[in-house]
Amino acid sequence: MDGTTGPDAADAGPGRAPAGRAPESGVAQSGASDGRPEATEALLHEVRALMRRMRSSSIVVAQAHGLQTTQAQVLFALRRLGECRVARLAEKQLVDPSVASRQVAALEKEGLVSRRPDPEDARASLVTLSEQGHAHLAELRRHHMAVFSEALQDWPTERVVRFTEDIEAFTEAIQPYYDYIAHQVSKETASTESAPEQAAKRGDA
């Protein structure tokens, strides 16, 4: 789900809009007389509703395990990324490196993550899940799995598989747009920062 596919994928880098598209306007360059706008709007509505419900559920599950939602998100991100710099974690979480650094510090205090100096850059540190963090994350995953299993118990396996494939295709189709937007926002933010501020961020990397 992290990659891009399709004919436009090769042209879609983080700093370049996908070929033949206009993500800044949110409108694809295609005809609009076949009910497509209404169908797309309905999809957007349902995706937003799903995100709200998932966010609410994530808050409840995280709190049940003594975590804030953002802390749980950091743990899941570290599980995907493995050992990495704070700057890399911030990039994936779409937050400022200073925010990610504070999140990591709080989790380190709880014994859920560990840090060590980056051998390639003495100013930076590498972050990874601790043994306790892996165990805590396993409990979170079991809780989420229990919720999903209960909610989808009446769905045949074939429907679950098909829905999963549709979500994967949707994610791959839309990811280049959000990568492009995130890159543009990052460039605009960097251009307004002073040299000391940028140096401080690099030191947190």
UniProtKB/TrEMBL annotation:
<dbReference type="InterPro" id="IPR000835">
    <property type="entry name" value="HTH_MarR-typ"/>
</dbReference>
<dbReference type="GO" id="GO:0006950">
    <property type="term" value="P:response to stress"/>
</dbReference>
<dbReference type="GO" id="GO:0003677">
    <property type="term" value="F:DNA binding"/>
</dbReference>
<dbReference type="Pfam" id="PF12802">
    <property type="entry name" value="MarR_2"/>
</dbReference>
<protein>
    <submittedName>
        <fullName>DNA-binding MarR family transcriptional regulator</fullName>
    </submittedName>
</protein>
<keyword id="KW-0238">DNA-binding</keyword>
<feature type="compositionally biased region" description="Low complexity">
    <location>
        <begin position="1"/>
        <end position="23"/>
    </location>
</feature>
<dbReference type="InterPro" id="IPR036388">
    <property type="entry name" value="WH-like_DNA-bd_sf"/>
</dbReference>
<dbReference type="InterPro" id="IPR039422">
    <property type="entry name" value="MarR/SlyA-like"/>
</dbReference>
<dbReference type="InterPro" id="IPR036390">
    <property type="entry name" value="WH_DNA-bd_sf"/>
</dbReference>
<feature type="region of interest" description="Disordered">
    <location>
        <begin position="1"/>
        <end position="38"/>
    </location>
</feature>
<feature type="domain" description="HTH marR-type">
    <location>
        <begin position="36"/>
        <end position="179"/>
    </location>
</feature>
<dbReference type="GO" id="GO:0003700">
    <property type="term" value="F:DNA-binding transcription factor activity"/>
</dbReference>
